Amino acid sequence: MSKATSTAQAAAAAVDHSAHPLPSYLEADNLGPWGNYLQQVDRVIPHLGSLARWAETLKRPKRILIVDVPIHMDDGTVAHFEGYRVQHNVSRGPGKGGVRFHQDVTLSEVMALSAWMSVKNAAVNVPYGGAKGGIRVDPKKLSRGELERMTRRYTSEIGIIIGPNKDIPAPDVNTNDQIMAWMMDTYSMNTGSTSTGVVTGKPVDLGGSLGRREATGRGVFTVGVEAANHIGLEISGSRIAVQGFGNVGGVAGKLFAEAGARIVAVQDHGGTIYREAGLDVPSLLKHVEENGSVGGFPESEVIASDSFWDVECDILIPAALEQQINASNAGRIKARMIIEGANGPTTPAADDILQERNILVLPDVIANAGGVTVSYFEWVQDFSSFFWDEDEINARLVKIMKHAFAAVWAVSQDQKVSLRTATFIVACKRILHTRELRGLYP
Ligand code: NAD
Fold first, then answer.
1. Where are the alpha helices (DSSP H) in 14-126?
2. Is 252 touching ligand 1 by the criterion CB < 6 Å?
3. What is the mean pLDDT of residues 387-410?
């Protein structure tokens, strides 16, 4: 055993869990996304050297807020929704992470998503900690007025912990620039200021950034091309399957198609479609805009939703929800490379199967970091009230993504670990280094 390894193990062992029992909400539901995150952290601890003594920090969110969100419905009744905002870690800067509206949102999910934001923000070295929010609701069942009232009441409830220097929300699943505009307005009304910097992903006319809407998909494309070069995979002519065709999957699919790839299969909440010759992506995007789903798209074959995982392809892009790639389907995937557009789409058990099968996984914490990177640009532009053109934004985005990917690739080659563990090594060292520099208060 090397000296560095033994020091790290001794430091990790120094945390006595029996003396410091976990809070009750951390013990529950360890099979969910939070449990997956904890397993990912355990895999990185042996690589953290002396910083491992601070690793417990990574396993406990700094702050959890659960709020009741009551609103008047259009029919005169009052409905209550459950909302969350979790700040996982703010050692490196204010909390940063999206807000999700989905009927299956849970505290465990939001905790995991906030933790992955800490790791992601450190991986691309933007000066933020990690946070995430959500409301347990199916927004498709609300009228526009109900959606606005719910968004405003939620913003007001979490207003005590968010702010341009405290925690900055952004869009995630089922939230968009209009919802960010309502959040910005509500916070501004409550504070008597015009606080554009309190959220990112706003409309461009309200302090939003050019290129933000496309940024996550563009980042997925950028790191995908970099990784493809490393493994000798030609993008032009390659076959790609995409799960989730919203903000992330739709843009990534479009950019890969423009680079000459064939998008052979797409799955979303409303259907799974296939076309060996490649789907016409611009028409498909228009169809989704008009119909809300890929379901019913002409010039395609409908396949069973579970068959999506058997599709012959070179690249698979999960860009929907967590835990989609798990022990039950990882053995069937035909791709050479998986680019995680979604957060947490692959369970640790599936990671092991994929690694054994030599399928390269580009983890969420680097692959989908393009969105938060341009959110950072938006926040900087809001503070300086000086706005950049789209070419400048895209050039800066691509530079950061390529630089971050190169660093992670080098660690993975040097230490013979997966790209996920390599990204966690780079990011967790940065987080824990600031933890150590700041020290404990009091
Ligand atoms: P979105 O709401 O724009 O799109 C979500 C897509 O997932 C839709 O196509 C929807 O139909 C599909 N979907 C939902 N349930 C599904 C199911 N059960 N099976 C198959 N498909 C399903 O959301 P988005 O912003 O594109 O986010 C997608 C993923 O990317 C999420 O994991 C999110 O956390 C992650 N992400 C988003 C951003 C961002 O900037 N928007 C940044 C980083 C990561």
1. 24-27, 33-44, 107-123
2. no
3. 98
Domains annotated for the chain, with CATH where assigned, are 3-58+430-438 (no CATH), 59-195 (3.40.50.10860), 213-362 (3.40.50.720)
Q: Which amino acid is at 101?
A: F
Question: pLDDT digits over 196-214, tens only?
Answer: 999 999 999 999 999 999 9
Give the predicted TM-score (pTM) of the model. 0.94
Amino acid at the residue 266: V
Residue 321, ligand 1, Cβ within 6 A: yes
Please list, in sequence order, all residues whose beta carbon lies within 8 angstroms of the beta carbon of residue 257, skipping any fewer than 6 positions away. 263, 278, 281
pLDDT band at 28 (very low <50, low <70, confident <90, very high): low
Q: Whose CA is nearest to atom 23 of ligand 1?
A: 173
Q: Which residue has the tokens 């987080």?
A: 431
Give 192's DSSP letter: T
The Cα-based distances of 239 to 218, 242, 259, 336 in angstroms read 18, 10, 12, 10
Measured in Å, residue 248 CA sits from the centre of ligand 1 at 7
What does the pLDDT average to over 358-370? 98
